[in-house]
Design goal:
By secondary structure, the chain is of the alpha+beta class. It folds into 2 domains: about 15-115, Alpha-Beta Plaits (2-Layer Sandwich); about 115-189, no CATH class. It is built from 8 helices and 6 strands. The chain has helices spanning about 5-10, 35-50, 75-95, 115-130, 130-135, 140-145, 150-160, 160-170, and strands at about 15-25, 55-60, 65-70, 105-115, 170-175, 180-185. The strands form 2 sheets. The chain has a 4-stranded antiparallel sheet, with helices on both faces. Helix 4 crosses helix 8 (about 160-170). Mean pLDDT is about 85; it is low at about 175-189.
């Protein structure tokens, strides 16, 4: 640890929560089926196991994914992205061939450190409710049944009403008489 420059710890602290997100090239909906989303899902699981990190929240949408992980080493966030992005790209091209993006799969990848509990709960709500936000599921029942969101795990552990409340703190939703969600606004503050 003595050989690592101090400024790296200011930006990538050890024993911290990291919000990792990646978007497909130009937002193309490359993961438009369960089989395609499974490629990303399996790579996330592989990265968690290989790097020995804890994952707290995840969501895999048609054109992006989000993960909230706890890292004990500042360098693991880059390795995590490499395993997920590189691995899913490789598998996608092996199975489905070249994409309409000319082989480019991931364009925009970001890592944010979560510094306080308020931000942590907002990130969990944002990730767990992300498929709802993007209209990939119609309501909380669909979200609960969707394996590409960690909502079910959190709802089972903390209570469904609690987790719906956490999501509503970030994504304001209202269920209509038919059981579909109506997104009113997106609360980023």
């Amino acid at each position: 640890m003595a050989n690592i420059p101090y400024f790296l710890f200011m930006f990538w602290p050890v024993n911290s929560y990291y919000f990792i997100t990646a978007k497909t090239f130009l937002g193309y909906k490359l993961f438009d089926s369960s089989a395609k989303k499974d490629l990303v899902f399996q790579q996330i699981k592989k990265a968690v196991e290989k790097l020995n990190v804890k994952i707290y929240s995840y969501s895999i949408a048609q054109n992006h994914y989000h993960c909230l992980i706890f890292l004990n080493s500042y360098s693991k966030h880059e390795k995590f992205k490499q395993l997920v992005n590189g691995g899913s790209s490789y598998l996608y091209h092996e199975i489905y061939g070249q994409t309409e993006t000319g082989g480019k799969m991931w364009l925009d990848c970001k890592t944010l450190v979560i510094y306080n509990q308020t931000a942590l709960f907002k990130v969990i709500g944002y990730i767990d409710g992300n498929l709802l936000k993007h209209g990939e599921v119609k309501n909380f029942d669909d979200l609960y049944d969707n394996k590409y969101s960690s909502f079910k795990q959190h709802a089972d552990k903390y209570g469904r009403g609690t987790m719906q409340g956490v999501i509503d703190q970030v994504i304001y939703t209202e269920e209509d008489d038919g059981g579909s969600m109506d997104l009113k606004t997106f609360n980023s503050g």
